[in-house]
TrEMBL record:
Keywords in alphabetical order: Phosphate transport, Signal, Transport
Keyword flag Transport: yes
Domain PBP stretches: 39-339
Chain residue ranges for the region called Disordered: 30-54
UniProt-listed Gene3D superfamilies: Periplasmic binding protein-like II
Keyword Ion transport: no
Protein name as catalogued: Phosphate-binding protein
Signal peptide, first to last residue: 1-29
Compositional bias of kind Polar residues: 30-49
Entry similarity comment: Belongs to the PstS family.
Organism: Conyzicola lurida
Amino acid sequence: MKTATSNFKRFGSVAAIAIAGTMLFSACASNEGTTPSDSESESTLSGTLDGSGASSQSAASDAWIAAFQTANPDVTINYSPDGSGAGREAFIAGGVAYAGSDSSLSDDEIAGGFAACVPDTGYIEVPAYISPIAVIFNVEGVDELNVDAATLAHIFRGEITTWDDAALVALNPDVTLPSAPITAVHRSDDSGTTKNFTDYLGKVAPDVWVDPAADPFPAAYGGEAAAKTAGVVDAVTNGSNTIGYADASAAGDLGVAKLKVGDEFVSYSPEAAAAVVDGSPLVEGREATDLAIKLDRNTEDPSQYPLVLVSYLIACQEYEDAEQAALVHGYLSYVTSEEGQAEAASAAGAAPLSAELSAEVATALESIKL
């Protein structure tokens, strides 16, 4: 079975993680354009490129923006962080030239075609950003919290409603949990982060979380809804006795729960997130230019953190406008290059693509007709 490639670079500490809340791509690129390290050649790129999608990558994208727009001063890339579902919808409808998404394209979306692309030509879907999802909390008097998938599932289903519930007490014998109601905060918009979170719950606690993984959070379970990564973080921060989920970079000073993996409780880290991706297969039956990964959530190896997201960039193999093709090719090539991944790791604590996976991505991007 073909797997996502290995040898992710080790770097940083947990304290280095600071990735997204809202996402703004504003970068510059092209096959003929310059990269930030290419100081001797002069960029020949110009024009505007519009994208939309996941709100999970803002710290990384800020670094990409600063470096790439400096290198290519006549290019502007506008990225609207409307959420993964909205980004895919905009790309499918032809409203933007590329999309960012924390969940890969569905078979139905692929079968429906893409108005952004030349008719009867292919598409590209490549991983660009790997990050843990943090379970964030704000509970008076509580600095540390252990959870397992089943308990999380019961909380977000509205079935565990107080912090001193017996299940939470059993997982946290050394913590005094208050007799206070739990406010569980979820995304109100269609979110790839939600799909990854519910995929984790469904894979690891299938007897409790019986709903299929999906971008929208199940409305029947109640709780507090907030838009985008920043909205969830704000609701958890400004609420009382709250819990939520968000890209780890956005956790800030909030409490972050440890997840039970095997017999241990594990903190998130880029290395632990990368290890899960490393051992996961690609989705079967896709085109060679579609590098969607089927994440293995059921690890019992405490060196791995199974609540992880892979954020993709989705684009066309052929555009009507040659300028758009050059911009898409150059920008996506930079983001997924060793240099672009190093920027994301430094600025956002993201786990870089391995050398092997980066090479596969580069091959997919070379299929863009320039």
